[in-house]
Amino acid sequence: MAIRKKSIDALPEVASDFVWAVSSGSHHEPHSLLGAHPHEKGWVIRALRPMAKSVSAVVDGEKIELSHLENGLWHGYVATKKVPDYRITTAYQDGSVWTADDPYRHLPTIGDLDLHLISEGRHEDLWNALGSHIHSVKGDLGLSHGTRFAVWAPNAQAVRVVGEFNSWNGVAHAMRVMGSSGVWEIFIPGVGAGTKYKYEILTRDGNWITKIDPLAQHTEVPPSTASIVTESTHKWNDKTWLDARSKRDALKAPMSVYELHAGSWRQGLDYRSMADELIPYVLELGFTHVEFMPLAEHPYAPSWGYQVTGYYAPTSRFGSPDDLKYLIDRLHQAGIGVILDWVPAHFPKDEWALGRFDGQPLYEHADPRRGEHPDWGTLIFDFGRNEVKNFLVANALYWLEEFHIDGLRVDAVASMLYLDYSREGNNWLPNQYGGRENLDAIAFMQEVNATAYRRNPGIMMIAEESTSWGGVSSPTDGGGLGFGFKWNMGWMNDTLQYIEKDPAYRKYHHGELTFSMLYAYDEKFVLPISHDEVVHGKGSLLAKMPGDRWQQLANVRAYLAFMWAHPGKQLLFMGSEFGQQSEWNQERGLEWWILDQPSHRGLQTLVGQLNKTYVDNPAMWQLDHHYSGFTWIDGGNADQNLLTFLRWDEAGNPIAVVINFAGHPYHDFKLGLPKNGTWLEILNTDAESYGGSGVGNFGRIEANGDGSHGQPHSANISIPPLGAVWFKPAV
Hints:
This protein has 14 helices and 35 strands. The relative contact order is 0.07. It is elongated.
């Protein structure tokens, strides 16, 4: 390429205010001045190098001296027809000389289709378009390696990238706005993985504010807040699991969930060491899934992850994003599903995060009657804005697809459904029809559920919804919200109220045990004994139980057996499986030492047996969500504090369940049964190995033709105190 320098007098003039705006990093299109631009039969190269002694462009090995225009902006001319691939060499007063690629010579790294989909709210792979991404550009001088940045900030006057690479001074790294999309973009050569950065945003009122990247996939460990450029190198080994998952009908499959808080399950573990300890524990106890409380980045640890600032960034408290992928991969290889708590209902007001991101309400609704949560002191997403809805829908897909998550438990669904949620008087804004339903949030939930299931067969979307809203787990094409499951908060509240009563008074509250069967098939339910039930003065599951320690443990054993036998999947919070004494505190961790006591070890052993027996018998889960899977033997025996019922599988095989919430045993109790002959006692919560008194049936009972309880056969059985027994036909 023939190159010659042209006299500076022949270079095009540039308005001083334009130069000033660009050189101060406050112009919305710095690329329109900086970089290489055609002029006459060649190109004008302009570079911003404040404080430089001299600046030159190196093109095809030839140095082209640039002249200083003003305010740190240098320019020169290259006579060539082809767009020059060049590097900028800068000499400073201290004698240092630096040669670097020029960010402003590069074409946009985000395409028109991306911008169109973002504006329409339909970019399902948003995390690949926005945020920071390692990127390489091929040119005459070889590959230029760096990072491309893109951020949505439609109300900004200017946006700059600041970070370790520019000493947190973004003047030389101002971004360009991509038309009317509100998306800002720049490719910065030389910036690699591990680089810390933020965005500086010039607001409408002329103030500069500093913000994290909403699409950052890695962050500093709190309380530090910088975003971090990252690049995944993890190689997944869970294809067998994913293939099987895609063919599995979750409604007709066993699902026993162990909920845990990563930071306090065993304190001091990171994602990788957690894999070594959590997996054998979950396998020993037989849970089919684990559910992590929110793992997206959050600055305030006591929020337990429910005040998210980095929706696309796993918390750095326990390692890198690849470390989390390693944990999930290991869980899948062990045959354990992974559910993640997801929080799209609200976000905190931290000034460096999403709130008033570009100086104006952006992610949050502008009207505080819809945009602020009065109880939680947080902000509420503007679900009706295309780009915001896209941000959340894509975020769900991000966790499901990039981290192979098997299900999302969606937090606080009720707060999204109702415009008057936790609002008194006129402190809420009705929808366009005058109603209290948040139509935008409903549409968002329908879209995220439909999209998640379409793109990821076999996953689960699970709603934590505490009201009687109809159709939470009904398909979207019929007007439902489209969730796969709903937490049964009614069952949880009613049964805990019952079990807290002294056995002497339980007969007056029997309906609290049986009421759930009136609506058990209205939704696809998960029965939760979650973290919410063992905090804020509620005490542990064990502490809720009346009586002395033996009676408390017996109550827990009977209650869990009832829970596992009741239609619906089940979820149990960590510590409840061995009878933690005190309520959960995320700063202290679990009371593992209590397992030195045989009675608590016995409860843990029972939970393992419950799960094994549950998984081995399809009658306990195959028809969870159909009335044909359940039959009362006697649901009305309040005087004796007894519940007796049958569970059925699709082949017509029954399991008989007997639950005694009285403090004394029953002997020679006549139990109606559907089949004659030998029935095996497959579970007895009062077994001595579980810490019980040993009342039972020596492993079997014999049913004869003497009918009872509306059943054609019966057997005389022993029922343990504060205990449960399950029976199944021997053949």
